[in-house]
Structures are given as C-alpha cells and as structure tokens.
Amino acid sequence: MNLSDFDYCLPKERIAQYPPKEREKCRLMVLSRGDHSVSHKIFEDIVGYFKKGDCLVLNNTKVMPTRLFGKRKTGGKVEIFLIRLPKPGEDPVCEALIKPSGRLKDGERIILESGDEVEVLARAEAGRFVRFNRDPRSVIKDAGHVPLPPYIERQDEPSDRHDYQTVYGAVEGATASPTAGLHFTEALLKKIRDAGVKIAYVTLHTNYGTFASIKSEQVEDHKMHKEYFEVSAETERCIIETKKEGGSVFAVGTTTTRVLEHCASRIRKALDPAEAGVCSGYTDMYIYPGYKFHVVDHLITNFHLPKSTLVILVSAFAGKEYIAGAYRQAIEADYRFFSYGDAMLIL
Fold it and tell me: Which among 60, 67, 281, 299 could disulfide-bond with 201, CB atoms 3.0 to 4.6 Å apart, if both were Cys?
C-alpha cells in the first residue's frame, strides 16, 4: 500500500486549538461497519451503544509536563522535550529532543527557567542525552510545560495541565496524551458503569513517536516506535469473562487497541478467567489494513493526522474507503480534528 492512499486535505481551521468547554459535549460520529452508515451524535450519547456485560477498556497513563525552556550561555533560547526519563534513584540522565540542536556541543550547559542546569551529553537514538543537576521529575514538576502536539500552534496554558489529561490518568509516564479518553468525565463513566458495563484499564505510556511521521513510501515498510505497557491480571480476566459471556470489548483509543491486540494470543489461549495473568513489556505493534483483530470489537477514537500510523490503524479496523468517506463527511460537517477535537465511535 502507498502512504499517499491514507492522505487527505484538511483545512487548517478544522484543527482544534482548544478543547470544548465540556468534555462530554463534543461531537461524536458513529460508524456502523455492518451497513456502512454514518450518524452524528454528542459524545455523552455513547452510553446508549453499550449493553450490559460489555467491557470498556481505558489507557490510564498520565502525561508528564516534559517540555522545558532555557538558555545557552550565549543567550540563545533552547527548548528541551524529554522523551525518556530514568527510574527514581537512577543517574538523572534523560533522552531528549532539543531545539535548536545543530550547534550544541557535548558538555555544554543549559540554564532552565527554574535556574536548574542541564548538561548536554552524547547523541541518542532520537535526540541527545542530557543530565540534570537534580532529579528530573522534580525539575519538570517545578518548571515543566505540557507537551502539546506540534499542530496546536500556541504555548501551553495553565488550563492545559487539566485539559490534556484524562480524568482517570493514574500512572505517570506519558509524554503525549491518549486523547480518545479526554472526552470522558467521572459522571459519564458512572453512567456507563450503572448500565452494567465493566470498566478495565491498561497502561501504555504514549510517547513522541505518536506524532512521528512515516518516512517510507510503502506503508508496510514502516517500523513502529516502542512504548512500555502493562495489562493487569484483573483486566485480562475482565476481557476473558466478557468474551466468554458474549459481551463486546470497547477500546478507547489506538493505544489501548495496540496493547490489547499485542496481548491477543495470551487472552485467546486463556479460556478460563482463572488463567489470567500479567502482561507487560514494550510493544512496537504496527497495525495496518489486512490485520485481523482478535480482541477489540468496537473502537472509540479521535480524528487523526493524514498519513499517520493512527489513521492507518483506524482504516485497518473499519476499511480504508469507509474511513476516507467518513473523514470527508467530517470535514464538510465542520467536525474538529486531532487531540482537542471531536470523536468517532466505530461499531
């Protein structure tokens, strides 16, 4: 498949720069793979698409404020985006993307807004290694900015610390938000539970690779970035029970989808919920058209960038032409796109 097959023209004004005032009031496009219909709802209407015994799976990663600003000793401004932090107690060396990076030398020191010093070290796989003068988690707590994606063309604001975080985010580690979950509120989740739906959690620490562009012209040649994930025995048990009892699994976001499908062989082999166990590690699972989904029955997602691994995954789930047509309708109907935009439910 050619990468150009997953391209589309999006007017710049359709890219949401701010979230809706009320998370659950965004628009919801509902796609039915059975008859290829398209309907238009409000996100809180999603409760009506669940049935008792279904399972809703959410990614509970929590975004860290990993964007830092500072100056070189020459006075030049520098932006540091941390993409990998050490574990507590380890040497305070991180992997980071630095802008501008061309003239930085090994051993050069950058003074942050907080007064902390960062030493530039050797080149890393994706950027540079940097060493902090104290625990980097303490530094970002004091001076970090929300790592908004590049298509949000503004500086982060205090409200983004709340808006760019899901209400159920609990496990720190992400440098990008699992944005399909931004539409849920505690009240909406309670309505879903009250409808007899089981809610389970996975953890996948979404990172900068979410926005990394595909370089290869052939879709199949792309190599996915690795992200750390965890699936508890409780979540695995919940999914096995749901499948055994004839319920459906609703995955919130492409991150949750990739985790569940990565663990599909374990889940399918465990015919008895008592056989459930922990599944964790790193996944670079890349899902593109032709893939057969084994765990996820329905997908809740946002509208994604052209030629991205995300729109390719969604096309694998619903069909390339069906998704392309739905995106055209969304543009014509003034839907808001990307992280702070509207949502899609694929049945």
Answer: 60
Residues in the chain: 347
CA 190 to centroid of chain Cα atoms? 23
Q: At what angle do helices 309-318 and 320-332 cross, to 10 degrees?
A: 110
- The pLDDT score that the predictor gives to residue 64 is 95
Name the CATH architecture for the domain at 3-63+160-346: 3-Layer(aba) Sandwich (3.40)
Half-sphere CA count of 86, side-chain side, radius 13 A: 16
How far, in Å, CA of 268 to CA of 152, rounded? 40
Q: Is the pTM above the cut of 0.90?
A: yes
The whole-number pLDDT of residue 207 equals: 87
Q: What is the DSSP letter of 166?
A: -
CA distance 112 to 110: 6
Q: In 3D, which of 1, 37, 26 has the Cα closest to residue 339?
A: 26
CA atoms within 13 A on the CB side of 122: 2
- The pLDDT value recorded for residue 270 is 61
End-to-end CA distance of the chain: 25
Q: Which residues are registered as beta bridge partners of 30?
A: 39, 345
Q: Is the peptide bond before 147 cis (omega within 30 degrees of 0)?
A: no
pLDDT of residue 156: 95
Low pLDDT (below 70) residues in the chain:
211, 269-275
Residue 275 confidence (pLDDT): 67
Domain ranges for the chain: 3-63+160-346, 67-143
Strands 109-112 and 249-252, bridge-based pairing: unpaired
Q: How confident is the model at residue 340, as a pLDDT? A: 98
Q: What is the pLDDT of residue 176?
A: 93
